[in-house]
Amino acid sequence: MKVLIVLTSHDQLGDTGRTTGFWLEELAAPYYGLKEAGAELTLASPQGGQPPLDPKSNEPDAQTELTRRFENDPEALAALASTEVLSTVDAADFDAVFYPGGHGPLWDLAEDQHSISLIQDFLRAGKPTALVCHAPGVLRHVVDEDGTPVVKGKRVTGFTNSEEEGVGLTDVVPFLVEDELVALGGDYSKGADWGSYVLEDGVLITGQNPGSSAAAADLLVQALKQ
User: Which DSSP string corresponds to 39-83?
Assistant: First the structure.
């Protein structure tokens, strides 16, 4: 099993002067879930190299057993420091893809033509494609062969408007994930704020928030084994 993990390269939180990036739990949970299932992992990002970490995701109240394990794992840290440049990656070389969230992807991956094409290639090849938290927002320009939004009519979830409000960034983000998925015709649903909630529709797997990362990775592993 060869799995690609795609991370953001964007580190500015709008015009706030604060930094953002990827959310650590959303990388650590799938990283270990997939690795322990025997998957060979490749990490990529638009700019390659070290992706920016959202500093809030490494504060004490956001840390988990798996984030602490990742932070103390030389092999994991080396893989993170040397991500492949996304434009050089080919979906044909992988069996599945996982997109961790954090706010960063809303700025770069959502508009990145390489990312859009890559997801289309995975989905059209019938390969499991998982996205958690803010990452389902990167589906906004992904379309079927006939130009229909890929989420139209599909059961999807992603970071909720109330969760965005809870972190005080409703007016900072370029778009709200929940609103975007609904506007595209997705059959959007959600669980309780901050609780694990994951949906699977064909090969498309989406998780609502950081706490959904492990469950989304588990579904990805199951899909790979089928």
Answer: -EEEEEESS-BSPPBPGGGGSGGG--HHHHHHHT-HHHHHHHHTB
Closest to 23 in 3D by CA, of 218, 207, 224: 207
Q: Residue 42: which residues within 8 A CB-CB, separation 6 or more?
A: 2, 3, 4, 5, 84, 89, 94
Residue 217 is inside which H or E element, if any? Answer: helix 213-225
* Cα distance between residue 130 and residue 111, in whole Å: 18
What pTM was estimated for this model as a whole?
A: 0.97
3-state secondary structure of 155: strand
Q: Are 188 and 113 in contact (CB under 8 A)?
A: no
User: Is the separation of the CB atoms in 22 and 7 below 8 Å?
Assistant: yes
3-state helix, strand, coil in the chain (%, to 5): 40, 20, 40
User: How confident is the model over 86-100, as pLDDT tens digits?
Assistant: 999 999 999 999 999
Residue 95 DSSP one-character state: S
